[in-house]
Amino acid sequence: MVFSAMTVTDSYFPQMMPSNVLTLNLYLGRAEFYFNNINDDSSWRKPYIGRKGYIFAPNLWTSAANNFNYEFRDDSQLYNFTLNFIKTSFPASTDKMTLKIGSGSGTPAVNNTYPRDLSSSQKVMSNGNYMQVGLSATVAADVRLSFEMQKGNPASAIGILTAFALSIFYAL
User: Which of 18, 28, 57, 78 could link 143 by a cystine bridge, Cβ 3.0 to 4.6 Å?
Assistant: First the structure.
């Protein structure tokens, strides 16, 4: 990971690293760190407006299983979730990554499985109360993602619901 001193903020951190190894090169600067070495990632999974971060396949840090399942959820707030695919490689036919963005417990607005749903834009955006990203892959798979959480736009969610309701009405 490389962070430019001109653009990096505490909103980029923390990054989950399932490893006991960290190398840091710092040139003419100052850094503050908070390390959490317990197995509770609930604070990392908490969404907030302006949040930015990264998700990497665990094989980048360690030889452990190349699996993860992260869910960022706050049912009291509507967010606009953006997920950018920095690098993805799924060499085995059994490798898959899932992405769900939605509200409540109903059908998610985004319900993708990769590599099948990988688009040329390599960027997915949607409103919702949660974003769930999961990976089940072989050690050869490489996944590097960045994400951002902004205040959701209720007008776009209402527009989608209105269009859906009208389509049902006219279908009857």
Answer: 57
